[in-house]
Design brief:
This protein is about 45% helix and about 25% strand. It is of the alpha+beta class and about 120 residues long. It has one domain: Bit1. The chain is globular, with a radius of gyration of 14 Å.
């Protein structure tokens, strides 16, 4: 198995019970939004992540409160991140916070924050 130095993690709230399609859609928003921030502010991390194959990991937390704690911690660690807030056009009310994209960034930096979370 290849060694990856960079990755992106998408953290979902498990209390929302989103459909598979909604999860896929929200994951796309998180991945793109966080990657744009990395490309703008951490160009070398972004380029390395692209060259390595754009590794992404989806994990879960209990609820909004726990998700917001990870957002704050990502900011404190200087990691590119994007909090996704739904527009309310399909399954959930407008303004619902669904997930958080962190990275791309060095895997060891992200693992310090999210390494103990369970896969989605």
């Amino acid at each position: 198995m290849p060694e990856f130095d960079y990755k992106q993690v998408i953290i979902f709230r498990r209390d929302l019970n989103l459909s598979k399609g909604k999860i896929a859609s929200q994951a796309g928003h998180a991945a793109v939004s966080a990657a744009i921030k990395a490309r703008t502010h951490y160009r070398n991390w972004f380029k390395a992540w692209i060259l390595e194959g754009q590794r992404k990991i989806a994990v879960k937390v209990k609820d909004e409160k726990e998700l917001l704690k990870f957002e704050k911690d990502a900011a404190n660690l200087g990691l590119p991140h994007a909090l996704i807030i739904d527009k309310g056009l399909t399954q959930i009310p407008e303004g619902t916070i669904t997930c958080l994209g962190i990275g791309p960034a060095p895997a060891d930096k992200i693992d310090r924050l999210t390494g103990e979370l369970k896969l989605l």
